[in-house]
Amino acid sequence: MKAVFKTDRGRIRQHNEDSGGSFLNRDGHRLAIVADGMGGHRAGDVASEMTLQNLQKLWEKTEGIQTADEAEEWLKNNITEVNHLLFEHSKNNPECEGMGTTIVAVIITDRFSTVANIGDSRCYILNDSGFQQLTEDHSLVNELVRSGQISREDAEHHPRKNVLLRALGTEESVNMDTKTIMFEEGDILLLCSDGLSNKVSTDEMVTILNNREIVLEERATSLINLANEHGGEDNITLVVIEFDNSNGSG
């Protein structure tokens, strides 16, 4: 298993309010996270960084997850706990009022991967069946698409594209989606903030990720560079995980 994390401020924003990373626990299982913060002055980076740090600490001392049910339970319980921490922090610190963050998190073992998400940061898988988005955006525009009120093409340029229906830390309780998939030799997982998915098409993602002649780090850099070439109006964050046992763990 090889994993690469990269984040970039982009070409327009003065601050990077995204956070992310990839962490091993005592059993050698991996937790990958991308969080895209939002809120008042610099509060978005507080929300995403608190989310990352708390989940990292909890994960690094976790052991004994053997089944998908246990992975889903870990994600639900600990993301719910982090939601409570963020909500309390925003209540007790006026400068952080209204802060929140998206989150997409994946627990990866050598048999399965379990995904949890809140907001519009995404997880994709590239495997023998093609390239598929595993997460559903919790956004106003996606709800309009789902209900048939607008087309996917309309959604790309909708003026309220950034309006989220769910975020971590903005409400006392939060609902998240979870899903477990098989993760096998040769498969690639991509977690990213909307700074990537809004700027790089799925065809472009597939072309870059499928280029096995260059190392994973270079593929990740190419994705970031392309998002910047297409405008780079937002922070860009990604984690790419490749199931490749030929070179051991990454």
Automatic annotation (TrEMBL):
This is Stp1/IreP family PP2C-type Ser/Thr phosphatase. It comes from Robertmurraya mangrovi. It comes from the Bacteria. SMART domains: PP2C_SIG, PP2Cc. PANTHER family: PROTEIN PHOSPHATASE. CDD domains: PP2Cc. Pfam families: PP2C_2. Residues 2-243 form the PPM-type phosphatase domain. InterPro entries: PP2C (IPR015655), PPM-type-like_dom_sf (IPR036457), PPM-type_phosphatase-like_dom (IPR001932).
